[in-house]
From TrEMBL, chain A:
SUPFAM superfamilies: Trm112p-like. NCBIfam families: Trm112_arch (NF038101). PANTHER family: PROTEIN PREY, MITOCHONDRIAL (PTHR33505:SF4), ZGC:162634 (PTHR33505). The lineage of its organism: Archaea, Methanobacteriati, Methanobacteriota, Stenosarchaea group, Halobacteria. This is Trm112 family protein. InterPro entries: Trm112-like (IPR005651). It comes from the Archaea. It comes from Haloarcula pellucida.
TrEMBL record, chain B:
This is S-adenosylmethionine-dependent methyltransferase. The keyword Methyltransferase applies. GO terms for biological process: methylation; tRNA modification. Residues 45-139 form the Methyltransferase type domain. GO terms for molecular function: S-adenosylmethionine-dependent methyltransferase activity; tRNA methyltransferase activity. Keywords: Methyltransferase, Transferase. The lineage of its organism: Archaea, Methanobacteriati, Methanobacteriota, Stenosarchaea group, Halobacteria. It comes from Haloarcula pellucida. Pfam families: Methyltransf_11. It comes from the Archaea. SUPFAM superfamilies: S-adenosyl-L-methionine-dependent methyltransferases.
């Protein structure tokens, strides 16, 4: 993802701002890292350049 | 497998996404004409973007395009197909990870009918209304009882839930959840949401609505 996405994305749960924590970057592209909600603290991973903003109950580790 | 949940539907597409994507090469003409009618947009959004075949059209008219899907398999297909022209996001249509009043032009086609409950479907329409700018516009579509393959009368008040098998190349079938909308019900759900319709039509067995957000009252 590109960093300018930060001006439009928000926490899917409470719609508050997210903090960006970059782990790996390739020029303008953020390849891995995480997005952390400034209000509820939920952590959303960035994997292979695509942020995973699924709420926790929609993720793989969630019970079916 | 519990396919009657949003996570179940996502898992279905994680499983069939590679093959599904190969059968979804071309844009739908109804979407092409909606996008053609939009003369330029700042930010465009495709909810349920799949392999990106429609987000690709949006990239021709908008400065910035966002493609959102619940399935990572499909998003990877989209990444291969349209690369950096579209910003891809993994997310849930009923809880969009986007700020209010941030989108000028949106398409939400062939996705609403995968949401398992009426509450989910209405929530997703309200979310679309929330993220659209006051002068924004969107195209919403869902599979309908008017399609030839269904016996249900097209004038029914309410549609029905069903599963439609997807056949993988090896012959294995994977059931996919659908809520098949009665046109009257589609109209009701849109009217009950934060969206107002500008026009509605039936085409190729799908209900289509061009919508805009209800007038947002400033506080």
């Amino acid at each position: 993802m590109k960093e300018d996405l930060m001006d439009i994305i928000c926490c899917p749960l409470d719609k508050h701002d997210l903090d960006l924590e970059v782990e790996e970057r390739d020029d303008e592209e953020i390849l891995s890292g995480q997005l952390v909600c400034t209000e509820c603290g939920e952590v959303f991973p960035i994997e292979d350049g695509i942020p995973n903003l699924l709420p926790p109950d929609m993720r793989d580790e969630a019970p079916a | 497998m519990d396919d009657r949940s949003r996570v179940g539907v996502r898992r279905t597409y994680e499983r069939i996404g590679d093959h599904f994507s190969k059968t979804r090469e071309f844009a739908w003409p109804e979407v092409e004409s909606f996008v053609d009618d939009a003369d330029g947009a700042g930010t465009a959004l495709d909810v349920g973007c799949g392999n990106g075949r429609h987000a690709e059209l949006l990239a021709d008219v908008a400065d910035r395009v966002l493609g959102l899907d619940a399935s990572r398999t499909l998003l990877c297909e989209a990444q291969d197909r349209i690369g950096p022209r579209v910003s891809l996001l993994q997310g849930d249509a009923t809880r969009l990870p986007l700020r209010a009043d941030s989108v000028d032009l949106a398409i939400y086609v062939a996705t609403l009918h995968h949401l398992p409950t009426a509450a989910d479907r209405r929530a997703s329409l309200d979310e679309l209304a929330r993220v659209l700018r006051p002068d924004g516009r969107a195209l919403v579509s869902a599979w309908s009882t008017a399609h030839d393959r269904f016996d249900a009368p097209a004038d029914a008040e309410t549609g029905f839930d069903t599963t439609v098998d997807w056949t993988l190349p090896g012959g294995e079938t994977v059931p996919r959840f659908y809520h098949i909308y009665a046109p009257a019900e589609f109209e009701r759900d849109v009217a009950a949401s934060g969206l107002t319709r500008r026009s509605m039509e039936l085409s190729s067995g799908n209900c289509y609505a061009v919508v805009e957000p209800e007038r947002k009252v400033p506080y």
